[in-house]
Structures are given as C-alpha cells and as structure tokens.
Amino acid sequence: MPADDGRLSNVMTEILITLSGEPLHGYAIKLDIEDRIGDGYALGSGSLYQALQRLERRGLIAEVPELVTDDARRGRTYRIETAGTQRLRDELERMDRVLADARRNDIRIAERAS
Amino acid sequence: MSPGERVYRTILRLLPGWFRERYGEQMVEAYRLDRTRDRFRGPAGRVRFWSHAVRDILGTATREIRDPSPVAAHVGRGRPGFWIVAEARHAARGLWRAKRFSTLATVTLALGIGAVTTVFTVVDGVLLAPLPYPHPEELVRVWERERDNPDARMVAYGNWADLRSEANVFQELGIWAFAAHTLTGRGEAVRLRSREVSANFARVLGVQPLLGRWISPQDTRGDARTAVLGNALWRSRFAGDPGILGHTIQLEGEPHTVVGVMPPGFDYPSGGELWVPLAPVTDPVGARRWHRHNMVGRLEPGLDASAAQRRVDPIARRLERAYPDDDAGNFFEIQPLRDSVVGSVRQGLTILFAACGVLLLIACVNLASLLLARATSREREFATRSALGASRTQLGWFLAWESLLLGGVGAALGLALAAWGAAVVRRSAAGIIPRVDRIEVGLPVFAFAALAALACALIVSLAPLLGGRLSRASLTLRQGRSSSALGTVRQRRRLVVAQLSLAVVLVVGAGLLLKSLAHLGSVDTGVRDERSIVTLDVRVPAGDRDDRAYALHVRDLLGAFEAEPNVERAAAVLTGPADPGGWFNSLTIRDRPVPTAELPPIGYNIVTPGYFETMGLALREGRGFEDADLASDEDVVVLNRTAAERFWPGESPLGHQILGAPELDRGWARVIGVVDDIRQDLSEPPHPEAFVPLEQEPVSGLVLVARVAGEPDPAARALERVAREFDADMPVSDAVTLRERIGATLSRPRFNTILMSVFAGVALLLACVGVYGVLSYTVAQRRREFGIRMAVGADRRSVLGFVLRDAATIGLVATLVGLGGAVALSRLIRGLLFEVGPLDPGVIGTVGALAFGVAVLAGVVPAWSATSVDPVAALREE
Q1: For the complex shown, is ipTM > 0.90?
Q2: Is some CB atom of chain B closer than 8 A to the CB atom of A50?
Q3: CA spacing 20 to 30 A to B715: which of B318, B418, B519, B733?
C-alpha cells in the first residue's frame, strides 16, 4: 500500500464527510453533498465517481458488496475505512489550522470557491 | 431510451473505457433521477442541467488525461490484469501527444518490417511453399553424375528403363526432354516451349488434364502424333474452345491430334506450354550414350531422398559393370524436386533475407535509441508516477505497451509496404526467379510481420529495462535534474556504433555485388563490337528439302538479310553467345586415346560459313569454311582456341581427325582451323567448342546474327520484316542486339544487386538518422557546457570541432567494426560474386570512406547548432 500523501480535493473531502455518517450508494452521496452545500450547488456524476474511485484506490473508502440495495442499478454502496476517518480528521485539522492562521493574521477569509 | 439519455450516453464516451465500464450505468441512472428533480425542470432547468453535465464530463475526462488514475491493483481486484489495459491506454495517449517521436519511430519500424516482410513474401512463395502437386514431398529429380565431374548431367534413355524396373524405390518414374515446336495455321507462326514426355509423367506429378486425356502409352510407342495443350496456350490460340479435342493442329508442319488440355497453372517442367509423346530411343548404343533426358519420380511412400539414394546406388554400380564404355564412373543423384525447382535462387534469396534481417535490426536499434532518449527526458514523469504508487511492473508494462503499440502500427505500415513490394517483385522478377506467381501476401506473411514486430517490440522494450533506468528513476524527483543523461548518451552511442557497423556490413555486400555485376556486364565475350550485332531466333521449316537444299535455303534467307542496306554480313548459328547450352559430348580423336574422365566435354556448335567473319573472330590457325569444303564429301570442323589448347597442348590440331558427336551420327571430321573464343556463359570461362557447318548437320532452330552499320534498331526492325516475308510459316522472335541479349542473361544477378543495394541504402540512411539523433541529443544535453566554454573564450571553430570529432570517432569505430564483420561474413556471399574477391580492397576502402563520411556528415547539423548556443541564455537555464 503506497503512502497516501496525495491531497484531498474538495469533492473528496465532502464525500468523506458524508460517508462518516453511514454507508451510502453513489446517488445518495451526491444528494447529501448537494443538500449540505446548498445554494443550488450540483455535483456532476463524473466528478463524483472519479472522486469515489480515487478515494477507493487510496484505501480511504471501500465498497460494501454484501449490502444489497433495493435498486441494483444504483450500484455499489460505499463506507468509510479507518484510514479514511483518520485522513478526514487530519484534513479537518488542517482546515482548522488554516482558518486559525488566517484569523491570527487578520486576513479576511475569501469565500471558498467551489 | 429517451433522446436525452441517448445524448448523455454519447457524452459519456468522452470518458476512458474502464471508467465507463465501472460507473457508466450508475451515471445514467443518476441522470434519470436528476431529470425528475424540480431544479432541472422547464427550459431553464434543462439548459442548466446540460451545461452542467457537459462541463462535468469534460472536466472529469480532462482530469483523467492530465492526471490519469491508473487503476491500481486493489481497484481491479475482481479482474486480474485490468491495470495492464489501463497502462495500454496510458501509453497510447502518450504516443499520440509525442507526434514527432512516434512518427519517426513508426516510419523506421515500417521500413525495417516492410523490407524483411517483402523478402519473406518472396521466400515464402518461392522457397517454402510446397509444390502444387499431391504429396509433393515424394517428388524427386533424378540426375546422372560422373565421378570427378562436379556438374550433374542429363540422363540416358536406357538408364530410365533400368531404374524404373526397381520396384522398391519409385511409385512412378517419368522421363522427359526439353523441346520446341512451331505451331502454324493459327495466326502468326509461333515457337512453343514444348516438352516430350513419357505416358506416366502426369501420374508421377499427380495431375489430371482439365479436358480430355493425358498422353497414353500407345502414343509414345508408335508414331501416333498427339498433343496436350497448356491452359494458357489453349486460351490464347484456341479461344478456350473445348471442341478442340480430337482436332488436328500443325506442329512442325505435321498434323497432331489434340487429346487433352491441362488445368491453369500447370507448366511443369519450367514454363512448358505443350506436351507431346516422347519417342523411345531404339538405338541400343544411343540409349546408353545420349544424355538428353530428364527424370522426375515419385518415391515410394515414406522414403526420403537419402534413403532412395542408398537404394539406387547399387543399380548404378550394376550398370557400370554392364556398360563399362558408357557408364563407368556414372552414378545417380536423387534430389527433392523442390530443390531442383528453386535451388538456383536459394542462395541469393537467403542472403537477401539475411540482409533484411540486419536492416530490421538496425531499425530496432534506432527505435531503442529513440526510446532511450525519450525515457531519459521522462524520468521525472516516471518518478512522479512511481511516487504515486505505480509499481516497477506497472511502469515496465507501460514501456512494453509503448513498444507494442509502435510495433503494431509499424507492422501495419510495413505490411502495406510489403504488399506493394511483393507486387513490384512479382512484376519485375517474372522469368528471373521460378514460381514468382506464387508470391502473395497471405496468412503466413501476416504472421511473419506480426512476429517481426513483436520481436522488435521485445528487443526495444528490454533495452531501457536492462539499463537500470527505472530503479534510478525514483531518485530523480528530488534531484530535479536528470542524473543519468550521461549514462544514456553512452548507451545510445554504443547503439549507434552497432547500427552503423551493421549498415557497413550490408553496404560492403551491396558494393561487392555491384562490382561483380559491373564485371559481368563488361566481360569480353570475344565478339567484336557487340552493339553492331543484331540477333533473332528463328526456326526454319525444312519442308521436304534434303540436307543440302535446306542449307541453301538458309543461305537464301541470309542473302536476303545481306541485301538490306546497312547489313554488312549475316550468318546462322545453333547456340550464340550469351546462350549457355548446346550439345556437349566427350571428344574422340582418331589414333589418339583421350582419357575422357580427365578432360572437359566439348560443345558442338553448328554454323554457316560467314559466322566467324560476322562475329569478328580472328583465325588463329588454318582457315575457315569454304564452299569447296561444303561440296566435298569429307567432313571438316573448326575448333575454338580453348579446344585446341586443351586437347592439343603445345601442338597444332590441324589435320587431326575427330569424331563428330555421336548425336550427329557422322564419321571422322578433319580439323581445318582454329578461331578465337567466344564466351557463351558470361560467368564461366570459354569452354572447348567445335564448329560444324550447317550443311553437315542441318538443324532448324537457329539464331540469325547480322553485323549492321549505323543504328542497330532500324536494322533490327528491317530484319524482322525480311524474315517474316521470307516465310510466313517461320516463327521469328523479336530482333535484339547482342548487347541486349547479354544484358538479359544478367537479370538475376541484377535483381539480387538492386534489392541488396536498396536495403543497404536504407540501412545506411537509418544509421545516419541514428548518428544524427544521438549527436543532437548530446548537444542538447550539453548546452550549458558549450555555453560556459564559449563564455570563457572558446571560439565557434573549437566547439564545431568538438562535436565533429565526436561524430568522427563514432564513424571510425563503426567502420572498423563493420568492416571486421564484413570480413568475417565474406564466406557467405562468395557464391554470388564474379571475378571479385569477398575482400575486394577497392570495395572495402570505398565503403569505409563512405561510412566514415556519412557519420561526419550526420554530425554537421548538430555541430552547427552547438556553435549557435547563446552563452548567457544557456547559463540562465534552470
């Protein structure tokens, strides 16, 4: 297993946040993220599945094959792995530090670009 | 499926295949669910949805290209080897981006594969393809040989009967003889390549007539005049009319009944157009003594040529005892039929094939060198990938795929090139190499090209792996600058030296062949001013004239020739210069035994009196034929110089009597003169020859020769016209100058030489590109160094010299190694050379200078670009 030193994209972070609640399938993850961000934000399927694939490759999330969903076409259900929880925690801490730094230096925080 | 969904699925095609395979259905499902949501309702919602979806897919696809996510092992866990396919896609994208590199690489490969596949197509069709008869492995030629004589000879009719009766060797043993028949009464009279054959001949080969029947044993026994037509003849002269069976046609002025028509493609032996019954040789002495026939046999099943050989050897020994006069020292030789058909071209083709293999190797080396340079410039890419978790195996596969893809495209282009090359060979080699009509681009050729490409890909992809390139790659990321550029330069240098050396070997081969061809073309045939001699082949019908009247008839024709303006002298001869063949026999001298085994046979030639004068042959001794000789009852002969010196060393042959050839069936003939030699076979020294006047031995197949003044071409046309007007039933070939006739006999060496020269030229060009590539690369790598040198005062000339010295070193080493290789391989080509040693100093010197010059020349452009480095700019880089 290669060391995971790649950065997390915004979508990846959002997916990890969503999955830290409960295992979900792809479309449910998309809806959850869109709800959380609001403002008419739409997460494209391409970006979603690309991010899911990359997270899976890094071992941060995994498929839950035994969990049979009501509609097979909705596809696989994903759950967060221990490494993923750890990585999410690190990421949130990093964001905290960035925020703290910015506040200490009295820098106005620009609205996060999406 | 809604139109919208169809559009969405189409857009999805922008994504990599593995991505679609894995997520496509889920994305389509998400599309369906999205369309039901309020936010995407109405025209505005629809616009919002599609612009978003297009941006999403495009963004995802671009991210996949910019930052491809090779599907790591654990994603493809369910499907082993899945990532290998991902590497292929990755490699293809990379090659597409590096267009200049890919073009150079594929063109190089296509040239190499194209050349080797072209020759393979010829080898496959001519050498490897089985003969088109059932159980071709059972078919053999049977020759007779004499101990102490390296040349096989034709067989005597009587020996056929003895061999045939041996039950345990041959299923069938057929006999045949070359012949020529004139067909008249069907348009212009035409001379046909006919074959006199035994009745079992078709059974030997296992062929059936298309129409009617084959020649029957009754046909060969009596004087029944029957004929079997070849398919091409049947179509061209008889309009493919099946009703021809049972009808008579005029052959040699005699009616013959057509009994059969052969299927298309059957022309054995070598270009036969017509088959007629072979008359038995009834003369008991002639049956043992006259070697005029050929035997082809079908061995008992399971018997191979060497086993058959062991069984016929005792028969030969029995015949030796039974006929000591004729068969002493005689033995039979069994040769697989295919060897006899293609044996004459095997050596030439094998050498060409080897030359192409070398060419392909050079192309591989070029490719390896290109890839090596590319690998170096991409070390950072590899380092990044390996840092991101790509394993060594993955990167190895990536490189392998790159080579395989290049190889695939190169093979496809090479195949196209080979198809074209094969067509050119088929067109231009007809009549030069046997079975040329069997050359085709079929499955074996495809398989061969694929194998060649695969071999190239393997050779090429192994090179960087062996160089330890990958293990070092991981270091590079941190260093930021290529650590192993110098190592690569050394490696590429070695490759370039190797390929230039290989090219030198080929060029030496081509040079030797060229020189040898030039020698052959300028051989002194002994004829004075060959360009002024016009020749044409005729067959003068004897009609019911007796010998003397026939000879006068021929003289009338020659007289008609000489009546033409510009024709100085005309004569007729049985076998002219550049016309190997003739009647060979051992010489019998009256009152002086000649041990025949120790002396070469003598060729009997038949001439009209003006022949020596027409050809410009000087008399060495005695005199030529005179009218008084022809009227007298005493037979006379004139010998050539070689015959006089061989059989009467140190003395004069004049006045001695020799026996006319047994076939001529004459008594003793007195030697009246000796003339200068004429070469018949250009690559052989003149052989002993005895000239007999036409009056003593009338033959109807003659070569007419005429010495003309001024332009030979109009004279040639005039002579054709005169001959046709003289007798409409006389077949007349096109008239050509003797020079052209000699040129035609050189077609096979010319064919070999042209192909070899083309390959050598391409090889040298590829090697030149290789030298240029490595030097430009070196210069690019050392820009800083050159900048510094020039900044501290080096002038342009010293930088120029620096690079050129580099080129010269490569050229020198490669030339020496290549010449060494050529010397080591010289043995192989010796058989194709004529009057040129395989170590010819002129050729070796020229090629050495050429290769060295080419290497230096290839260095000029890189050297020039080195001098144009701007010191300041070079120092600022990085």
Answers
A1: no
A2: yes
A3: B519
